[in-house]
What we know:
Blueprint: E1 4-10, E2 13-20, E3 32-39, E4 46-47, E5 50-51, E6 65-66, E7 72-76, H1 79-82, E8 88-94, E9 105-108, E10 111-118, E11 120-125, E12 129-134, E13 138-140, E14 147-152, E15 157-163, E16 168-171
Antiparallel strand pairs: 1-2, 2-3, 4-5, 6-7, 7-8, 8-15, 9-16, 10-13, 10-15, 11-12, 11-14
Amino acid sequence: MLDGIAKHQLNKFLFFETIKPSIDEPKMFFLKYEKFLLPLNQENIIIGRVRMKFTVSHKEKSKFEAGLRGFFQYRDLGIDTATKGNYGANVIRAVPGKHSKGEWHLHKLNFQMVYILKGWVTFEYEGQGTFTFHEGDSVLQPPKISHREIEHSDDLELLEITSPASFDTETV
């Protein structure tokens, strides 16, 4: 299986095989191959070799904070801590009156998905074109795809899921 995990149950153990593509060499699919066994029990709900912790994020007990972009605020959903940094999930909302300068950039990560919760946003992707996303729309941005945000509504809210949780961003 490419870019995934094959899970097999062997008696009282979970057997996992992972094959992941390289971020730096997109055409090299079999760069990382692992096999491992873990006892089959409730505590061993895992991603790769990392145990996940149960986590809940309540809107009323959470707050938005400044983050990567000054025109957005970020609400961490606790996935980073629960997966020891392997995954991140944030609700991101626009700061009314502040907007992107439209700078081309890319993210050095394995996975990035965006789902629009409210409002709209327009992105341009190198080699793909310009897309406006509205409530209920989503986009999977492949690793290292050059892109830029062109504009967004003042009421924009989106869910972003990444792997890993922390990653570098490079202006291009």
